[in-house]
UniProtKB/TrEMBL annotation, chain A:
Pfam families xref list: DUF934
InterPro entries: UCP030820
Protein name: Oxidoreductase
TrEMBL record, chain B:
Entry keywords, A to Z: 4Fe-4S, Heme, Iron, Iron-sulfur, Metal-binding, Oxidoreductase
Gene3D superfamilies: 3.90.480.20, Sulfite Reductase Hemoprotein, domain 1, Sulfite Reductase Hemoprotein,Domain 2
GO molecular function: 4 iron, 4 sulfur cluster binding; heme binding; metal ion binding; oxidoreductase activity
Residue ranges annotated for the Nitrite/Sulfite reductase ferredoxin-like domain, each copy included: 63-120, 358-408
InterPro entries according to UniProt: NIR_SIR_4Fe-4S (IPR051329), NiRdtase/SiRdtase_haem-b_fer (IPR005117), Nit/Sulf_reduc_fer-like_dom_sf (IPR036136), NO2/SO3_Rdtase_4Fe4S_dom (IPR006067), NO2/SO3_Rdtase_4Fe4S_sf (IPR045854)
Organism of provenance: Komagataeibacter sucrofermentans
All copies of domain Nitrite/sulphite reductase 4Fe-4S, residue ranges: 130-283, 423-558
Protein name: Sulfite reductase
Length: 164, 562
């Protein structure tokens, strides 16, 4: 499926590191094991890292100033650890770059992804992008604050979701 | 937003247009998901978590829909809608559960969007009644009414409902997650058998604080929740719970669903290490983002209708006279009522356990009657209890006898609350796809056997809890006498546990010996109870005698009949 940003298709400017090959010159996403290698590249070469769901994102702390992207993974849609990773990246580590969801999240989880701080989605799933767009628009209200700091609604915990 | 307090529903949070919009969007979303499923665009595997997030199970014979009753509170209008659903889409029945919800056992997938739409029409839903998310928060059935209450827990239960509803981070946890909240020093919510149990009370400055228990649960590994911290300030309630659930989401096991509950994580790490992780998370959170402002609490409290408690000065005296005049009514008052904070009022428990009946089952007509009685006698407010009964919270003492007569007429006046007839039972093999044995017939036989109300009162406080399998939906570990269905080469057997309790004296029942065949189980329990009647000291309940003497004294009664 194409890369999704805020319900719309966007161009992917990142290349994936290929196992066994040297890292290319441009923007590249490396697996966590090759982070050192990535960091050794010139300081202005855009660098992203892909982590598994069992990684404590605190290990990225020293590297984060150099990172433009962190890819979090949903090995199945049932495995919700990446939601916590994304939130921790935004809230505890103040990461402002791209957080990309990979693996097989469901379109029905799209709002959750965004509200936990994910910015782009690149899934192995095959359905039409329209399903994702629809999932993004169908619910306009949430009952709790999130990293998006949605506008409060009334006196309760309720928020208006931002759908642009 | 201004609210007209005179029109607020008593005892529960009043929805406004925003809440209603949210629900109708959810119904539209589910309709679309059902459509995708029917069209084959979603596999059953993919559809499953979506239907589960709307309370829809696939059971032995049909779909089962579990409708949320937030913290057990509902209104007469809502009960009437449930009656309508029972009549139109089910076989005229609903079933109250130990999670204070109601289940319908014979639902068609195609009808579900319409049912959810009807529910939304009365501000009800089935969101998060299943799935690996934070489930319906449960609460004391006498909340806001009980004389022993320190703090009405419903306001915070509603806050937790809102906080947990479609929580972006916590909707795909390793396993289901259950929170109970009590505002009384007397635990009526089984706080220590929940993933998180909260006990609210006023702090030194009068503001609410919470004692937090974590990692309790039943199922195949019954564990009593450990004490995590005391006096959590109200403003940090959400931050702290976020920290607990976040630690669980990050570290809870996902490789084995039987080891995925938070209780396993707490045991594996040890309380100290678990607490350290939670504290570390709590410390690094931006607490301002999660602060539960007093204004928010008050805003939510303001959307709860409160009953206008006004009783004639002689209401209590009238009740005394009524009791003297009618021994049967007097007995029912002894067993089926609870002391109210206002001297002119009392809380009445409607037993959904008629002699020989199915615990928790109500007919559509009974639902309508309960709704009418709630309107007439209790400000239109109804509570579902985790013992599968119904409570009318605020009944004027001078009108209690009228209420009782009406209940009696409908088969809802059984005087057995807290007694041997007040059995908790899960649906078991009659409905449940996971069951090893039928729970319902055992419950029916026991309750018929002990139907005599004098005998029941003589036996005294006794909790019998029945589960059809190790998942423990019927809380068998927490019963004074627990009955667990097991499968032995295709035959139904029942294992007895003794000494469990879900209250302040919390304990896990102990297995006393080999499981019994179906046809011996009821007799064995009858002998057990007879033995207790012989052995007990003056004033002792079954659990006291059991604790004083131990299992050995009861073993012979079960396994070596005279
Ligand atoms: C009929 C469909 C039902 C199914 C398939 C079902 C399934 C389960 C399963 C698999 C568990 C074990 C969960 C675990 O420990 O991880 C469980 C526990 C439980 N269920 Fe059910 N259940 C059903 C109905 C009910 C009903 C009707 C009630 C209430 C009467 C109920 C209340 C509970 C409770 C209280 C527990 C113990 C929870 C704990 O350990 O925290 N369930 N159920
Ligand atoms: S205890 Fe077992 S048999 Fe009973 S409802 Fe739960 S899963 Fe089904």
């Amino acid at each position: 499926m194409p890369l999704l940003e805020n319900g719309h298709v966007t161009e992917d400017r990142w290349a994936q590191a290929i196992a066994g090959e040297a890292l290319p010159a441009g923007a590249v996403i490396v697996p966590l094991e090759r982070l050192e290698e990535g960091l050794a590249r010139p300081k202005d070469a855009p660098l992203g890292v892909a982590i598994g769901p069992d990684v404590d994102v605190a290990v990225l702390r020293p590297a984060l100033p150099r990172l433009g992207l962190v890819a979090v993974n949903f090995p199945t849609f049932r495995d919700g650890r990446a939601f916590t990773q994304a939130r921790a990246l935004r809230e505890h580590l103040s990461f402002t770059g791209e957080i990309r969801a990979t693996g097989t999240p469901l379109p029905d989880q799209y709002e959750f992804l965004l509200r936990c701080g994910v910015t782009t989605v690149q899934t192995d799933r095959t359905e039409d992008v329209a399903v994702w767009q629809q999932a993004h628009e169908i619910i306009s209200i949430a009952y709790q604050p999130s990293v998006l700091h949605e506008r409060p609604q009334g006196l309760g915990l309720r928020r208006f979701l931002v759908t642009d | 937003m201004s609210t007209d307090t005179a029109t607020l529903p008593v005892g529960r949070y009043a929805y406004d247009q925003v809440d209603r919009t949210f629900l109708s969007q959810r119904v539209a979303q589910f309709r679309e998901q059902v459509g995708r499923r029917v069209a084959g665009d979603l596999s059953e595997d993919e559809f499953k978590p979506l239907r589960l997030m709307n309370g829809l199970y696939l059971q032995l014979h049909a779909y089962m829909l579990r409708v949320a009753v937030p913290y057990g509170m509902m209104g007469a209008d809502q009960m009437r809608e449930l009656a309508h659903i029972a009549r139109t889409y089910d076989r005229d029945y609903g079933h109250f559960t130990t999670r204070q919800n109601i289940q319908f056992n014979w639902i068609r997938l195609e009808d579900t969007p319409d049912i959810l739409e009807r529910l939304a029409g009365v501000n009800m839903h089935a969101i998060q009644t299943s799935g690996n998310c934070i489930r319906n928060v449960t609460c004391d059935e006498f909340a806001g009414a009980a004389a022993d209450e320190l703090l009405d827990p419903r306001i915070h239960a509603e806050i937790l409902r809102q906080w947990s509803t479609l929580h972006p981070e916590f909707s795909f946890l390793p396993r289901k997650f259950k929170i109970a909240i009590s505002g009384s020093p007397h635990d009526r919510v089984a706080a220590r058998f929940h993933d998180i149990g909260l006990v609210a009370h006023p702090g030194p400055d009068g503001r609410p604080v919470f004692d937090v228990f974590v990692g309790g649960g039943l199922g195949r590994t019954p564990i009593i929740g450990v004490h995590l911290r005391d006096n959590l300030p109200e403003e940090d309630l959400l931050a702290y719970l976020e920290a607990v659930v976040r630690v669980y989401n990050a570290y809870g096991r996902r490789d084995n669903m039987y080891k995925a509950r938070i209780k396993i994580l707490v045991q594996a790490l040890g309380v100290e290490q678990f607490r350290e992780k939670v504290d570390a998370e709590f410390a690094q959170m931006n607490r301002a983002d999660y602060r539960l402002e007093p204004a928010i609490v008050e805003g939510i409290r303001a959307r709860f209708g409160i009953p206008d408690l006004d009783a004639p000065a002689d209401a209590a005296r009238k009740l005394e006279a009524d009791r003297k005049a009618d021994a049967r009514f007097d007995r029912w008052v002894r067993t089926n009522t609870h002391t109210h904070r206002h001297e002119g009022f009392i809380s009445a428990v409607v037993s959904i356990k008629p002699d020989g009946g199915i615990p928790g089952d109500v007919t559509a007509d009974q639902m309508d009657l309960i709704a009418d009685l709630a309107d007439e006698f209790s400000f239109g407010e109804i509570r579902v209890t985790h013992m599968q009964n119904v409570v009318l919270g605020h009944v004027r003492k001078d009108r209690l006898r009228d209420l009782w007569r009406r209940l009696e007429g409908a088969g809802l006046g059984t005087p057995n609350i807290g007694l041997v007839g007040d059995i908790i039972a899960c649906p078991g093999l009659d409905y449940c796809a996971l069951a090893n044995a039928r729970s319902i017939p055992i419950a029916q036989k026991l309750s018929a056997r002990f139907a005599n109300p004098e005998l029941q009162e003589n036996i005294g406080t006794l909790r019998i809890n029945i589960s059809g399998c190790i998942n423990a939906c019927g809380h068998h570990h927490a019963g004074h006498i627990g009955i667990l269905g097991v499968d032995k080469r295709g035959e139904e057997f029942f294992q007895l546990t003794l000494g469990g309790s879900a209250e302040n004296d919390v304990a896990i029942g102990q297995i006393i010996g080999p499981a019994l065949p179906e046809d011996e189980t009821v007799d064995a329990i009858a002998r057990l109870i007879d033995t207790y009647l012989v052995l007990r000291n003056e004033g002792e309940a079954f659990i006291d005698t059991y604790r004083r003497l131990g299992a050995a004294s009861f073993k012979d009664a079960v396994y070596a009949p005279a």
